[in-house]
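Thread amino acids onto this structure.
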């Protein structure tokens, strides 16, 4: 072999050694990394909804005793009209679509403080100094944890982001939209209590179609949910506060569909849609309301009065027209007006059928 050929052979060998010791280790590492990820995906599949736990909790809220001979899913009743041949004697729990994984309800009970930072008369959020208000909310959370140890409690800051007004305003919509800095403050408070935000919308003479897109940057956040208030939906031209307003199932479904799109577009866990109600006419065509895998719908009884009056409204308005979940509002002041004997206790509320999974304080 000539000297030149020997030098060339040695050069090739050096390159091969360098490749084996260097780049081949890199490629091997990358290959092992990809392989490890593949194995991890096989060993740890994507999380799924625990349907047995979900159904068991629904039955507990409806005070239905678990049977030892059938599964919880078989015991969850279908809610149908009385004219249907499939009609059942019990309305609760409602058997509708299962939510996507990550759903809050019924795995946690929400305890919310409600109001507006600009007003002391609209609820706890604006009535008390921040630290005092958060301490009060924390005390209510602990009270509910003690009342029902089987259901974890999730605190919420429920802020009225669109407020109905007696004044028509520049747009003639009889509303006042809150500035971003106030909503940012709401987000900060929820973060302090490790809770969620519920943005409350009173449309006045506007519409959900006009108002919800203006809140989209917040509603697209995973910790932000929505409440809509039929009382201040003035479809027939009356100024807010002069008559009780109304939403139809079509309005509720629009809000649910809007939230569902945000969930899908942003890969979010399910949203909660709270619908306030204390009269029959506030929500029409309830049988047409459609819960979605992306949106859990909750009907909240927010009328005030004595214990007897609140119990009556709940059993006459909320319970007979089931949608998916229920809630109840407690008024620190209005519920104590004579002839009141005090606020409903946690025990009295838990005895309602179905037991509310959402508790709001104003």
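Threaded sequence (362 positions):
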């Amino acid at each position: 072999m000539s000297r030149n050929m020997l030098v060339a052979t040695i050069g090739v060998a050096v390159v091969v050694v360098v490749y084996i010791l260097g780049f081949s280790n890199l490629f091997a590492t990358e290959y092992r990394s990809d392989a490890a990820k593949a194995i991890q995906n096989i060993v740890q599949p994507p999380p799924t909804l625990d349907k047995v736990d979900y159904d068991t909790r629904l039955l507990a809220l409806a005070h239905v005793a678990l049977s030892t001979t059938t599964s919880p899913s078989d015991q969850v009743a279908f809610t149908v009209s009385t004219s249907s041949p499939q009609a059942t004697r019990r309305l609760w729990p409602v058997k509708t679509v299962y939510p996507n994984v990550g759903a809050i309800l019924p795995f946690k009970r929400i305890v919310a403080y409600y109001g507006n930072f600009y007003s002391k008369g609209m609820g706890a959020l604006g009535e008390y100094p921040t630290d005092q208000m958060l301490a009060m909310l924390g005390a209510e959370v602990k009270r509910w944890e003690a009342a029902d140890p089987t259901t974890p409690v999730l605190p919420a800051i429920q802020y009225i982001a669109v407020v109905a007004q007696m004044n028509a305003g520049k747009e003639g919509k009889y509303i006042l939209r809150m500035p971003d800095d106030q909503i940012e403050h709401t987000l900060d408070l929820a973060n302090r209590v490790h809770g969620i935000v519920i943005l409350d919308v009173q449309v006045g003479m506007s519409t959900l179609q006009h108002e919800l897109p203006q809140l989209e940057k917040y509603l697209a956040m995973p910790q932000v949910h929505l409440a809509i208030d039929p009382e201040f939906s003035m479809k027939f031209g009356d100024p807010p506060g002069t008559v009780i307003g109304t939403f139809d199932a079509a309005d509720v479904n629009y809000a649910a569909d809007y939230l569902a799109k945000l969930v899908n577009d942003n890969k979010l866990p399910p949203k909660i849609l709270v619908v306030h109600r204390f009269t029959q006419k506030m929500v029409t065509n309830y049988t047409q309301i459609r819960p979605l895998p992306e949106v859990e719908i909750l009907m909240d009884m927010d009328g005030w009065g004595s214990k007897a009056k609140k119990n009556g409204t709940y059993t006459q308005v909320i319970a007979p027209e089931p949608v998916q979940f229920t809630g109840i509002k407690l008024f620190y002041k209005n519920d104590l007006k004579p002839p009141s004997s005090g606020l409903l206790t946690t025990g009295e509320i838990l005895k309602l059928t179905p037991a509310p999974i959402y508790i709001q304080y104003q």
